[in-house]
TrEMBL record:
UniProt-listed SMART domains: HTH_MARR
Molecular function GO labels: DNA-binding transcription factor activity
Organism encoding this protein: Nocardioides luteus
InterPro entries: HTH_MarR-typ (IPR000835), MarR/SlyA-like (IPR039422), WH-like_DNA-bd_sf (IPR036388), WH_DNA-bd_sf (IPR036390)
Coiled-coil portions: none
Domain of life: Bacteria
HTH marR-type domain span: 1-147
One example of a Gene Ontology biological process annotation: response to stress
Protein name per Swiss-Prot or TrEMBL: MarR family transcriptional regulator
Amino acid sequence: MDEVKWLSNDEQVAWRSWLAVNAQLTARMNRDLQAKNGLSLADYDVLVNLTDVPDRSLRMYELGDKLQWEKSRLSRQVMRMAARGLVERRECLDDRRGAYVDLTPAGLEAIEAAAPEHVKLIRRVMFDAFTPEEVAALTKLYQGVLERLEVKAPEVAADGSAA
């Protein structure tokens, strides 16, 4: 078994700072969206992903992949949003097991109303504090982490060895 290379003090401070920023920013975005627009951050995430595609419709599995959510979480979220008229769940005629999630006019109106204040928050708490060079450095760092996350882990055999 490989020996663990523990985090240095500087690495630990950086890691815990990132965890704190992630938790606090997520909570703040959720509170602000709820208070100002009656949307949860989960609602906003779904709506953003639907506005990012030309026909404003995604297969459930595509939306789940984009959000990195489990099927049950996505299904419950879509059901709640459909009940509020923000999205519509439509059966896929080509695949009986599949379904589409479509953005409704009310969903589009909701995201258009929420986006300006949401962007103001993100700009105020994050980007206004950085130079363009720092933003470029952050982008490079985050994209590097994302690329390493996308690398598939090797298959593991029943005996624990790499398959």
